[in-house]
Specification:
This protein has one domain: Ribokinase (UDP-N-acetylmuramoyl-L-alanine:D-glutamate ligase, 3-Layer(aba) Sandwich), CATH 3.40.1190. It has nine helices and 13 strands. It is globular, with a radius of gyration of 19 Å. The strands form two sheets. It has a nine-stranded mixed β-sheet, sandwiched between helices. It has a four-stranded mixed β-sheet with strand order 3-2-6-7. The two termini are 29 Å apart. It has 305 residues and is of the alpha/beta class.
C-alpha cells in the first residue's frame, strides 16, 4: 500500500454529554459513546471518507486495545497491530449542552524496547512499498522524542516522503530531519518558534522559519482564521479560507485537514489543491460529531484555496 500511517499512541476516545458542569457535585451523564481515536486513526478515517485507503501501523494492548481493534474492523480501516503488554489509553471528551467541551487525555501506554523494535520492523517492511508515510500524534511515555526524526530519515533513505503532525519535543527533533510537510496548529507553531504569535504576519514568519529548517512545506491550521501553506525555498505562500457555517465540534479538525492535504498529495495535485481540500475537510470535521460514523458524512463546498 503506497500510503502508510504510523500511530504510536492510539486511544479509545469517549464522549460524555452533560447539560452543565457542577463543581463539587454529582454530574449526570445524559449519554455517552466511544470510538477508536488518536490523531493517526482520525486521519485514516477521513482518508477513507475521501476515497483513499491507508494502512495503519499501531501498538495496542489490554482491553482498550481490543476495543480499538473492534472499532477499526467495523469501520473497515486496514491495520497492522503490534501487541503491547501495556494498556492502550482512554481519553474522555465532556460536551456540555451549550457546545463547550472539556478534554481529558491520558499519557498512554509505555512501549517496551522489544515492542518498539517490532513496530520499527513493521515500518521498515511497509517502506518497501510506501510512497507516503504519515507520522501523527504524541509519542508514548518513555519513547525517545527523536523517534519521529529517525523515522523521517529512514523513510527519506527509501525515497518515501513524510507528512508530520506532532508537537513539543518530538516536533523540535523532527523538523531538521526534513519531512516533506509539517502540519502544526497555531499554538504548536508558536511553541516551536519560541515566541507568542499575535498576528497573521507572525504566523507567516514562524511558518517560513519552520519551512527553512525542514526544507519542506508547512501547513498551519488556524481554526476559523485563514489557514496557511508555505514553502520558504520555493517562495510559495498560500492562504485558504474556511467555508462559512456553525461549528459543533473542533476535535480532530486538524487531523481531517492533514487527511485532505494527503489525499491531494498522493494524487500529484498542485499545492493549492492540498490547501483547498485540507481546509474543506477540516471544516467538515467541525460540522459532525467527534469520531463520526459513515451515515454522518458531510463535506461542505469550498470557497477556494
Amino acid at each position: 500500500m503506497s500510503l502508510v500511517t504510523v500511530v504510536y499512541n492510539p486511544s479509545v476516545d469517549e464522549e460524555w454529554h452533560l447539560d452543565d458542569l457542577c463543581w463539587d457535585e454529582k454530574n449526570l451523564i445524559k449519554s455517552q459513546r466511544s470510538w477508536a481515536g488518536g490523531k493517526g486513526v482520525n486521519i485514516a478515517r477521513w482518508l477513507g471518507f475521501l476515497g483513499e485507503r491507508t494502512k495503519l501501523l499501531l501498538p495496542l494492548g489490554g482491553s482498550n486495545g481490543r476495543e480499538v481493534r473492534q472499532y477499526l474492523r467495523k469501520e473497515g480501516i486496514f491495520s497492522r497491530v503490534v501487541q503491547s503488554t501495556h494498556e492502550t489509553r482512554r481519553n474522555v471528551v465532556v460536551t456540555l449542552r451549550n457546545g463547550r467541551q472539556l478534554r481529558f487525555n491520558s499519557s498512554g501506554l509505555r512501549l517496551s524496547s522489544a515492542e518498539e523494535i517490532r513496530l520499527l520492523a513493521e515500518v521498515r517492511r511497509a517502506l518497501t512499498r510506501c510512497a507516503t508515510l504519515i507520522l501523527s500524534g504524541s509519542l508514548p511515555a518513555g519513547t525517545s522524542p527523536g523517534t519521529y526524526s529517525r523515522l523521517i530519515r529512514l523513510a527519506g533513505s527509501r525515497g518515501c516522503r513524510v507528512l508530520l503532525d506532532c508537537d513539543g519535543e518530538a516536533l523540535r527533533h523532527a523538523v531538521p530531519a526534513g519531512p516533506f510537510l509539517v502540519k502544526p496548529n497555531e499554538l504548536e507553531l508558536s511553541n516551536w518558534w519560541g515566541r507568542r504569535i499575535r498576528s497573521l504576519s507572525d504566523v507567516l514568519r514562524a511558518a517560513k522559519a519552520m519551512s527553512t529548517e525542514s526544507e519542506g512545506w508547512v501547513l498551519v491550521s488556524r481554526g476559523a482564521d485563514p489557514s496557511v501553506l508555505v514553502h520558504a525555498g520555493e517562495r510559495v505562500t498560500l492562504m485558504g479560507h474556511a467555508p462559512r457555517g456553525r461549528a459543533i465540534n473542533t476535535l480532530g479538525a486538524g487531523d481531517a485537514m492533514l487527511a485532505g492535504a494527503a489525499f491531494e498529495i498522493v494524487r500529484g495535485s498542485p499545492p493549492a489543491e492540498w490547501l483547498k481540500t485540507g481546509v474543506v475537510s477540516g471544516t467538515a470535521a467541525t460540522r459532525v460529531r467527534p469520531g463520526f460514523s459513515h451515515h454522518e458524512k458531510y463535506l461542505p463546498r469550498s470557497r477556494g484555496g
